[in-house]
Structure formats: C-alpha cells, structure tokens
# Entry
Amino acid sequence: MIRYYYELTRKEMEAVDKKNTVVLFPLGAIEQHGSQAPLGTDTIIAEAMRGYIKEELEKVDPDYEMLMLPPMPVGFSVEHLDFCGSLSFKADTYYHLLYDICSSLAYHGFKKIAFLLCHGGNKPVVDSLARQLRRDLNIYPFVLNNGAFSHPDVKATITPGNERDFHGAEMETSMVMAIKPDTVKLEYSEAGYLGEYDGKKAVKFSGSKSIPWMGRDFVTAEGKPIGILGDPAGASAEKGEIILRTTAKTLVPAFLEIRDWKIE
# Structure
C-alpha cells in the first residue's frame, strides 16, 4: 500500500513493516525559473510526482509498500541567488538537514530511502550524503533523478529548433502548466542563450571539463542575465502531462528493484 507518511497515526506507523517499506523523499527547490515560471517550479513538480508515481506503481504492484514524505521545498541553489526570490541552503546546512531526517527514519527502523531529485543542483550534496548514510547508519539510500528528459517521447515534445532546453525553459514550464497552470505567465517568456559558453570547445558548463555554472551565465539575445537556457514560449500543459507521466513510468523499474533489494 502506498501512503503519505504524515497521514498515518502513531499507532499505524508502529505497524508498518519498516524493513521492507520504501520511504520516498522528494527534494525540490525554490529558485528562479525565468520570467514565466514560478520560483517553486521544482517543488511543485516534486509534490505532483508523488501522485504520478503512486498511479504508475499501483498498476504494476497494488501491494507496493511505500511511504511518501512531503517534498523538501528548499535545496542547494546557490547558482540562482543572483535572481530575486531564490532561496538556498549552504551545502553543509542542506547535508545536515537531510542527514538528521534520515537518521530519524533509521532510528525508527526504516532501511530503504529513495531520494527523488527534482532539482539537479541538489545531486552533489545528496550523492555524498547517501554514501555517508549507508556507512554510518547501515541503511540503503537510493538516488533517483526526476525528469526523463532524454526519453524519445519527452524529446518529441520540444519545439523544433529548441533542442538546447535546460533549466526553466520549455520542458519544466510545461510540467508546471500541467500541474498549476495559473502560476505560469507564458506571455512574459524570454529565451535564454549560452552567453560566455557559446563556442567553447573544451571547457563547458557541464561535463568532464567544466566550470560550475551560475544562473547569470545564461542571457537573453540582448545579453541580459535570464538564468534559463532555451525558449519556454512553446510550453503547454499537454506537453507537461507527457513529460510527467513518462517520467513516472521510467521510474517504475527502479522502484521494483528497490522493493526487492536484499537487506542485510
């Protein structure tokens, strides 16, 4: 049975099979997503993904044992602090907040925690955290990236010519439009470009040879910092539904393997 963690009473929680139940921990962010999408884009997506995952998992295994935590709304988003409204923990603060939550779960006997990363900037912290949690607490922390952005069905939603779609552009805006359309102001859309990264052959903004990017690095055609890469103007709720649903479906095989993971 898939349930929301905070809806259980203490007595109900005592009866949960802690060893085999998977605790889903979605990790969002509050940060700029261009001129058109809300600051809470990642957290809005993180919250909604719980429902999509629940639907898709129950189609395959109606008895799947999972407890879903509410999303952590703020993450490690220092790259966006140049833009008004963005919030961020320092890396060590974020690490210790997550550590303490997981330590509480481990104290009560939970063994399997699945982090769902709905903001890419959280990944370096969570990767380090997960390894330390496994070493210190003898639990099994799984790290899952949200957003099946390389899936053919998702790539087919991108407007032709807008293939370089990254942070806050067409795909993420579409996802929010499918969830909370009133929070998106598509009429304010501005396209973002590579800025100083344009034309670089060796050192890029991501990959094996890179400089950590900041939101201000991505600019409009006029050179104004915009913080997104790509053009969100072609976003739609229909596209967002495809992306959200496809993402949930692609996560199912991982959740099934987590369910069957042997615990020492």
